[in-house]
Design a protein that fits this description.
The chain has about 70 residues and is mainly alpha-helical. Helix content is about 70%, strand content about 0%. It is built from three helices and no strands. The protein is elongated, with a radius of gyration of 23 Å.
Length: about 70
């Protein structure tokens, strides 16, 4: 990257920074709790993978894995 390119790149980010911060603040202001819950739940969905409901939380199995790893 040349010095001119680097200067131009930095100038673009200096200009874009406040605009991006404004968009972020606006999106956060419009976000409600139910929409946040839907978004957060979608992080754990793997397309094409369906698991049967578990009767336990998996904590016992997790602790066994940690014990073996130690």
């Amino acid at each position: 990257m040349t010095e001119t390119n680097a200067s131009n790149w930095m100038a673009q980010w200096r200009a874009a920074g406040p605009a991006l911060a404004s968009v972020r603040a606006e999106e956060l202001a419009l976000l409600d709790e139910s929409r946040s819950a839907v978004i957060a739940a979608s992080f754990f969905i793997v397309p094409g993978e369906e698991r049967p409901a578990s009767e336990t939380s998996g904590l016992v199995e997790q602790q066994a894995i940690f014990l073996r790893a130690r």
